[in-house]
Amino acid sequence: EGSGPVLLDEVRCTGNELSIEQCPKSSWREHNCGHKEDAGVSCTPLTDGALRLTSGKGSHEGRLEVYYTGHWGTICDDGWTELNTQVVCRQLGFKYGKSAPERYSEGSSGPIWLDDVSCSGKETNLLQCSRREWGKHDCDHQEDVRLIC
Questions:
Q1: What is the pLDDT of residue 102?
Q2: DSSP state letter for 90
Q3: Where in the chain is the domain with CATH 3.10.250.10?
Q4: Which DSSP category does 27 fall into?
Q5: 50-148: which CATH topology?
Q6: For the chain, N or C: smaller number of CB within 10 Å?
Q7: How far apart are the first and last CA of the chain?
């Protein structure tokens, strides 16, 4: 049990959100709870295939990065389609998305993990889409995928 004010109630996350702010929930401090109902979590390390958007104006836009073997890396835009974007945005907990204009670009110096990604649009996870092997690409960071979800 915790102590002090109860801040949130009715939190319903899908698991793909980047922060608890993106989850459906009651208004802050509106609850019908006691501390016997306090939630707790145990965090597990990131798994290969986790996604994030970086270097944008918020957590809903920017350069798409994928986690693999302990490192975040980028995805090349060769053959990238709007279907791919929809799969990524859904995986991140958003309803839809679009490719971002170049003005959101900020160079990355990390690895380029994926290239030639092709989704049908029905996938729930980007790793279900066809793609080259991890780290196999013919790209530079000017070709990093950038999105707005």
A1: 65
A2: H
A3: 50-148
A4: P
A5: Mac-2 Binding Protein (3.10.250)
A6: N
A7: 37
